[in-house]
Amino acid sequence: MSGGPGVPDDGLGVLPVPGLPEVTEGIALGELIAAETELEQGDVVVVSQKIVSKAEGRVLSISSAIPGAEARKLAAVLGKDPALVELILAESREVLRAEGGVLIAETHHGFVCANAGVDTSNLPEEGTACLLPEDPDASARRIRTEITAGLEGPLLAVIVSDSFGRAWRLGQAEVAIGCAGISPLDDWRGRADAAGRRLEATAIAIADEAAAAADLVRDKTSGVPAVIVRGLGRHVTEEDGPGAAALRRTRDEDLFR
Amino acid sequence: MSGGPGVPDDGLGVLPVPGLPEVTEGIALGELIAAETELEQGDVVVVSQKIVSKAEGRVLSISSAIPGAEARKLAAVLGKDPALVELILAESREVLRAEGGVLIAETHHGFVCANAGVDTSNLPEEGTACLLPEDPDASARRIRTEITAGLEGPLLAVIVSDSFGRAWRLGQAEVAIGCAGISPLDDWRGRADAAGRRLEATAIAIADEAAAAADLVRDKTSGVPAVIVRGLGRHVTEEDGPGAAALRRTRDEDLFR
């Protein structure tokens, strides 16, 4: 690994991108980020889902939703606004749990998270809700193209990230819901350990770990929606790759649904 | 945040600690790490479970275990060595799933992971298995004391980390199984967003995200068992704190057991 500004030798630098303006619908996020920071070969640019959704017009008025029978029933159980529950159901392929005020759903993309990713915090207008991007891998690919268009060919990757709760562990951790230009899984199956024996480790979720690293320089109130993770060049690929879709555990492979 | 060597302004540096010798039982890991690196005020030292377990003599000969009836039954279902399954059961409070060659158990500490954390890779001797530390929070506290004993009072934190699989998502991610000197959960409940409204985000699993960041500079074959995460000083506390025990979701709070 080459180091470079903000990166210790053989280490990693995690650098917030300050000074991004309030994001509105239709804005080219990649151009905005490229203009605010000096990007290097091999950088991984981690962008918060919230600004991606805003740029893609995925902020809706909650009252625009007409709650159906299922939404009204769930809303009563959960103590939530029926219109908000209707928005959540429209984003869901399946509700996994609805109890204790918490609704855990599988989104149409195949991600399992609270409220199917529908969020009402950190939005400029009262009474609105933010949905996940329709296709977060496509979002990552588009932002990657926008960033590299203005630069002389640096090879870099983009991750779209969001905070998800976890089974078995308290607290939320940031994960990749979309990515382009990075292998999201570093597959160790079949490789040997330091003593030459087969490794039990299977595959490391590099894109999720990079999203988590980026989250450490954020502050949920200050709004640092873009972060550079520098020093991961060995995971950056020329092609866009399989995206964060490769991180979804399908129902057949999942022992916990 | 103050920056300092290897840390970009307002950012984070993630620095491998090279040159650690092979760890053997009884060695004072904290002294070893302090001798190999220049530690700074506010550093978070992330230490791999494997070397902590080795230092604590938690490596056993698999054939030392006499498989009971349950171990023999599970071993047949899973296609595993019955003696190894016996070791796993001895580390388990409860087996959650045993199918498709995978055994997911809750450890006596209350962590849910594959094989109750019993691992046979990256060990010097064939036919041995490594167990998790008996009390990883106590391990972190001891390593913290060892590190700071030799230094003029820098306030730093220690995390003991391991790679865990996840429900719903493919790939393993590094998490904190023990910690001292860091608030493992950064609690945002009741705080306000940039627009002054209540945040929906509950609590960020800072210690898990720091463990994940550290993993990005590791290479599962090269053995970088200690990593410094520099720039998290605001999360480092004078007291040892609640440890990674605070990250366990208890059975009552868990919708997925």
Question: Can you offer a commentary on this structure?
Answer:
The structure is a homodimer of 257-residue chains. With 257 residues, chain A is α+β, with helices and mostly antiparallel strands. Helices cover 23% and strands 23% of the residues of chain A. Chain A has six helices and twelve strands. The first copy, chain A, has a five-stranded mixed β-sheet with strand order 1-12-2-8-9. In chain A, helix 1 (29-36) crosses helix 5 (136-149). The longest helix of chain A has 14 residues, at 136-149. The first copy, chain A, is globular and about 55 Å long. The N and C termini of chain A lie far apart (40 Å). The relative contact order of chain A is 0.20. At the A-B interface, strand 1, strand 4, strand 9, strand 11 and helix 6 of A face strand 1, strand 4, strand 9, strand 11 and helix 6 of B.
Outline the secondary-structure elements:
The structure is a homodimer of 257-residue chains.
Chain A: E1 12-16, H1 29-36, E2 44-48, H2 49-55, E3 59-61, H3 69-78, H4 82-90, E4 92-99, E5 102-107, E6 112-114, E7 128-130, H5 136-149, E8 157-165, E9 172-180, E10 186-187, E11 203-204, H6 206-215, E12 226-230
Parallel strand pairs in A: 2-8
Antiparallel strand pairs in A: 1-12, 2-12, 3-7, 4-5, 5-6, 8-9, 10-11
Helix pairs in contact in A: 1-5, 3-4
Quick recap of the structure?
The structure is a homodimer of 257-residue chains. In chain A, 23% of the residues lie in helices and 23% in strands. The first copy, chain A, is of the alpha+beta class and 257 residues long.
